Structures are given as structure tokens and as C-alpha cells.
Amino acid sequence: MAVHPVFSVIVPVYNSDRSLKELYQRLVAVFRKELRRSFEIIFVDDDSNDRSWEVLTGLKQKSSGPVVIRLSRNFGQHSATLCGLNSCHGEYVVTMDDDLQHSPEEIPKLIRRMEETGADVVIGRPEKKQHSYLRNVGSLIIDRAYGTIFDKPAGLYIGSFRLMRSWVVKEIILNRAPNPMIGGLILQTTSRIVNEDLAHCKRAYGTSNYKLGTIRQLVVDLFINFSTIPLRLVSGCGALFFSLSVVAAVIIVFQKISGSITVPGWASIMILFLFFSGLNMIILGIVGEYLARIIKEVSNLKQYLIREKK
Q1: What is d(CA 122, CA 193) in angstroms, rounded to the nearest whole number?
Q2: Among 62, 99, 157, 289, which residue's CB has the most CB atoms within a 10 Å radius?
């Protein structure tokens, strides 16, 4: 295998021990038999709790094959991918999932699309998604978030099966935020992004690791890391609530004059108390999210930590 390969393939791994061997064999077949270009494959185990690491080390021992990295704890797919991007050497870099829903045989399509268009990034767009209903809803929400934050073109799909030029990767790995979002970093780096329609296979083993909490966290990371929209929303809510409080104050004054309020001061005090208590909680919650991110950055928290590498 070449010291400086033409292609690097990054695969973040989490609890996929049954699919890894097949995935590796198919990747090798694509690059050796079809593309015939030098390559490296990097698997990043995001602290799986099944036999994924044993399978990866077995693949490493049987050939000169993949680079295998194990993180010290579960950092999430984006951090694991970033770890792989920091370790690769290819002129072109492919990232893909570990569950065989991304077909290695589709990689040549990404390459041809980049050659035809001159794009910096080519992202595979599923012809027909084979995800669960929850995952599809989550993907839709995240897509809307990308559109809101980055003014992403409506038809552009952002996914994890992608081909990038090395200069884009070099810019992405400069990011030091503790909650990286690869899609957001790509959108910040270049506008020359195109899609290629690809087959999306059914998951061969197990179930998706994306839960409701994972999707929620990804959306929060997008808005907090890349946008000031929440702060602007707070400002807008503050102006709205202030206007409503003025109206309420006028109503209370007229009720007081007309004698409708039988307990002097009680209604106005309760309304103001509830109103400002709720408003303060909203403001503190959103500001607290930003402060938490600032604390993480100044505390020099790591995007990932490598336990071992082979």
C-alpha cells in the first residue's frame, strides 16, 4: 500500500461487529479490482461494547490492511469521523457508515461525479431511504436546520456517505469545537457541493444507534455551534413579551378603575410573577447552552481521545 495513497476511506464504528469483515472485503475489492488506485482504510471504533474491536484487530493481523483506532470512550459519530480525518493521507477522502447501508460498490459513482463537475465535495443522496420512521423524521429536522443556519440550497442533501478533496479535509480538521458537526463544517468550508443519487441498502444486522436523544443533540449542536439564532430568538421573545406585558398592564389598570378586581394587587402581582419567571427561565436556559460550550472550549476538552492505534 502506498505511503501517500490516492484515496482514504474513513469508517466510524459503533457496535457493528457482524458487518465489519464484509465491509472491509468489499472496500478492498472495489479499490483493487475496479478502481485500481492506491488507498487506505481507517476504522475508528467509538468505544463499542460488542466485539467490534476484536474484529478490527483481527483484520489488521491478517493483512497489511486497515488502520484501526480505538477511542477511549464513546464520543459520537462526528468526533470519530474527525479522528479518522486527522489520521488520513489521501488526496481524496471517502467517509461512510459501518452498517452496510452505504454500499462500497457505489464509491466509483462519487468519484465520477467529482471528475465531471469539479466539485470539492460529492455527497451520496439515497434513491430510497431504508431508515426507520424515527430516523427519517430526524433527518428531515436536521436538514431543515442546515437550511436555516447555512442557507443551504433546498435540493442539496447532507449525508455521511461523501467524497471530499484533501484541502477541504485540511480545513475541517482545524476546527477545535468539542461538539463537531461534519456537515456543518463542510458547508462552512465550500459552496461547491453536489449530490449523486446512490442505492441505500437495508440494514443487514442489528438496529440503528440513532435514538431520539441523539437526534435532539445533533440539532442542538447545529444551532449552538454554528448559529446565533437562539440568541436572536430570545431577543424577539423578550420584545414580544414586553409588548404583551404593556397590554396586560393597561387591561389591569382599567379593571382596577372599573372595580372588577376584588383583591387589590393580587392579579397583577401573579401575572407579572409568572410572566417574568417563565421568561427568565427561557433566557437562562439558552444562555446556559452557550456558556456550557464556552466552558468546554476554555477547559480544553478533547473532541476525541485515542486509546490505541494499530
Answers
A1: 6
A2: 99
* Residue 183 to residue 181: CA distance in whole angstroms: 6
Asked whether residue 303 is domain-assigned, the answer is no
Pair 162, 123: CB distance under 8 Å: yes
| Domain-terminating residue out of 227, 253, 269 | 227
Q: What does pTM read for this prediction?
A: 0.73
Q: What residues are paired with 70 via a beta bridge?
A: 45, 308
Structural domain harbouring 249: 229-298
C-alpha cell at 260: 372588577
Pair 108, 134 in one domain: yes
Rounded to whole angstroms, what are the CA distances from 160 to 77, 125, 181, 270? 10, 10, 11, 51
- Burial status of residue 252 (CB atoms within 10 A of its CB: 0-12, 13-18, 19 or more): middle
Among residues 227, 255, 290, which one ends one of the domains?
227
pLDDT tens digits, residue range 208-226?
A: 666 666 666 666 766 666 6
- If pLDDT is split at 50, 70 and 90, which confidence band does 200 have? confident
Closest listed residue to residue 216, CA positions, set 205, 207, 224, 208: 224
